[in-house]
């Protein structure tokens, strides 16, 4: 189906809709009204209608949204109907934790290998996924047609590694290193900083405490 140009703000909210719709499907719920979805998601019904109207009239008056259809369409918009091959660079605590999380595969993200410089880790497997030396990086990226590289190495190494990955054809970097990466315009970087969300939590806790002290 044809989709209108969707704003970045809406795109940012789509994964959350996708997650909730997936849960509804697991519960066997076939239809949901914007009101019911609003109650579950703690988002106003008008926001939901506005967001979902962006890509066609999924909702019908008196019928609500067809959960499976909406789930599939949002999945397509997010590119989840395709498989993406992923590598993890840095097979330490975080790299291994990501590899151990099986749900990424359910979303179509297939981890093809981990890479590290530590000889004690090289040759090891995590859930059957091998840790390779860096010498294998280009070969694995090309052979497995890897599109996404997760960077879970110290920040001092991240810039140089990003350049190397880009030179081997990587188009998307999932950056966990606490540094900004300078990459060409056609390379996407999505940075994740868990500490940022902890700080937001801290802010909310401290403003709540202040409010109670007043
Ligand atoms: P770790 O020390 O357990 O693992 C880092 C791994 O990277 C080690 O196995 C090391 O041998 C490897 N490594 C170092 N240089 C490399 C290179 N040039 N190429 C390939 N491998 C290399 O550390 P941990 O806890 O896994 O954290 C990894 C990174 O992620 C750190 O920079 C940390 O600050 C960051 N981090 C970020 C979070 C976030 O929310 N963004 C959360 C947790 C950690």
Characterise this structure.
The protein has helices at residues 8-26, 34-41, 45-53, 67-77, 93-100, 103-106, 137-143, 155-167, 194-213, and strands at residues 31-32, 59-60, 64-66, 84-89, 109-115, 125-126, 129-132, 148-151, 172-175, 188-191. By secondary structure, it is an alpha/beta fold. It has a seven-stranded mixed beta sheet. A three-stranded antiparallel beta sheet has the order 1-3-2. Helix 8 links the parallel strand 8 (148-151) and strand 9. Helix 1 (8-26) packs across helix 4 (67-77) and helix 2 (34-41) crosses helix 3 (45-53). The chain is globular. The model has no long low-confidence stretch (mean pLDDT 91). The structure holds 1,4-dihydronicotinamide adenine dinucleotide. The site of 1,4-dihydronicotinamide adenine dinucleotide has 26 residues, from helix 5, helix 8 and helix 9.
Q: Which ions and ligands are bound to the chains? A: 1,4-dihydronicotinamide adenine dinucleotide
Q: What profile does the largest beta sheet have? A: 7 strands, mixed
Radius of gyration: 21 Å
Residues in helix, %: 40-55%
* Number of continuous helical runs: 9
Portion in beta strands: 15-25%
| Shape category | globular
Distance between the termini: 54 Å
Low-confidence stretches: none
Name the strands of the widest sheet in spatial order.
6-7-5-4-8-9-10
């Amino acid at each position: 189906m044809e989709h209108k140009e969707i704003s970045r703000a809406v795109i940012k909210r789509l994964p959350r809709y996708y997650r909730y719709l997936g849960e509804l499907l697991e519960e066997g719920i076939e239809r949901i009204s914007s009101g019911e979805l609003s109650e579950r998601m703690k988002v106003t019904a008008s926001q939901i209608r506005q967001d979902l109207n962006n890509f066609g009239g999924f909702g019908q008056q008196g019928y609500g949204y067809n959960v499976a259809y909406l789930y599939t369409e949002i999945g397509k918009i997010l590119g989840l109907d395709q498989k993406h091959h992923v590598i993890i660079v840095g097979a330490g605590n975080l790299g291994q934790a990501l590899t151990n999380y099986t749900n990424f595969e359910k979303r179509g993200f297939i981890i093809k290998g981990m890479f590290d410089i530590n000889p004690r880790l090289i040759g090891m497997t995590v859930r059957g996924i091998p840790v390779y030396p860096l010498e294998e990086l280009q070969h694995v990226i090309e052979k497995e047609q890897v599109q996404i590289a997760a960077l879970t190495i110290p920040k001092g190494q991240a810039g140089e590694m990003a350049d190397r990955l880009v030179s081997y054809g990587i188009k998307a970097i999932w950056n966990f290193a606490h540094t900004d990466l300078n990459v060409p315009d056609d390379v996407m970087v999505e940075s994740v900083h868990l500490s940022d969300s902890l700080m937001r939590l801290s802010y909310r806790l401290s403003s709540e405490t202040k409010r109670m002290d007043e």
